[in-house]
């Protein structure tokens, strides 16, 4: 969805390096999420933010940190990348104003490889 | 334990044929169930959403059913096309009082449509 953009789209890095993945959205949504997807495991939630001052850990937050710089921007950092963080990372947004609809709009993904 | 199980894990069908994908869940309290389609290399996109009171919802050639009593949902694809080749993900939203609860993702069914 062009309304949710992720940079970079692909990244190869080495063990121990610090990596930042960025997400921007023009949908005006207040809620933003970071997921990782591994083959055969489906999507797993890393962190989520319901507004600029609200940051919450997901089910697999160890080794990751996030920053909600503005309502439209949510970045994910790997302070010291390790090989098992090799995965496809997705940013998503949703609008709390839609009540319990909870539709999430996903970005195109960032493929991260840690050597 | 709240879980979402999908079957089959993968499916190959010939163009023009119909198919049905299954989703069983144990998420409680239940808010809604959504089917997403994820094309290779892209983020998931919502196909349908169903709440507790709905048992059928259609979106073109896609028809989702929900049996809230048995906690089962199915996604039926009619007259399949090559563009239907994708992963189909079942996502169940838990209810948390008046606010949105957590999302539970299935691992997806990988559908391949052959000409």
Task: Walk me through the structure.
The complex is a heterodimer of chains A (115) and B (115). Chain A is mostly beta strands. In chain A, 0% of the residues lie in helices and 57% in strands. In chain A, strands 2, 4, 5, 6, 9, 10 and 11 form a 7-stranded mixed beta sheet that branches. Chain A is globular, with a radius of gyration of 13 Å. The termini of chain A are far apart. Chain B has 115 residues and is an all-beta fold. In chain B, the strands form 2 sheets. In chain B, strands 2, 4, 5, 9, 10 and 11 form a 6-stranded mixed beta sheet that branches. Chain B has a 5-stranded antiparallel beta sheet with strand order 1-3-8-7-6, with no helix packed on it. Chain B is globular and about 45 Å long. The mean pLDDT of chain B is 92. The chains are: A mainly beta (115), B mainly beta (115).
Outline of the structure:
The complex is a heterodimer of chains A (115) and B (115). Chain A is mainly beta and 115 residues long.
Key phrases:
heterodimer, A: 115 residues, 7-stranded mixed sheet, 4-stranded antiparallel sheet, 11 strands, B: 115 residues, mainly beta, 0% helix
Topology:
The complex is a heterodimer of chains A (about 120) and B (about 120).
Chain A: E1 4-7, E2 10-13, E3 19-25, E4 31-38, E5 42-51, E6 54-57, E7 64-70, E8 73-78, E9 87-94, E10 105-106, E11 110-114
Parallel strand pairs in A: 2-11
Antiparallel strand pairs in A: 1-3, 3-8, 4-5, 4-9, 5-6, 7-8, 9-10, 9-11
Chain B: E1 4-7, E2 10-14, E3 19-25, E4 30-38, E5 45-51, E6 56-59, E7 62-67, E8 72-77, E9 86-96, E10 99-105, E11 109-114
Parallel strand pairs in B: 2-11
Antiparallel strand pairs in B: 1-3, 3-8, 4-5, 4-9, 6-7, 7-8, 9-10, 9-11
* Largest interchain contact: A-B, 20 and 21 residues
Q: Outline of chain A, from the CA principal axes?
A: globular
Q: How much of the polypeptide of chain A forms β-strand, as a percent range?
A: over 45%
Strand element count of chain B: 11
Question: What is the residue-averaged pLDDT of chain B?
Answer: 92
Helix content of chain A: under 10%
Q: Tell me the strand percentage band of chain B.
A: over 45%
User: Which class of secondary structure composition applies to the elements of chain A?
Assistant: mainly beta
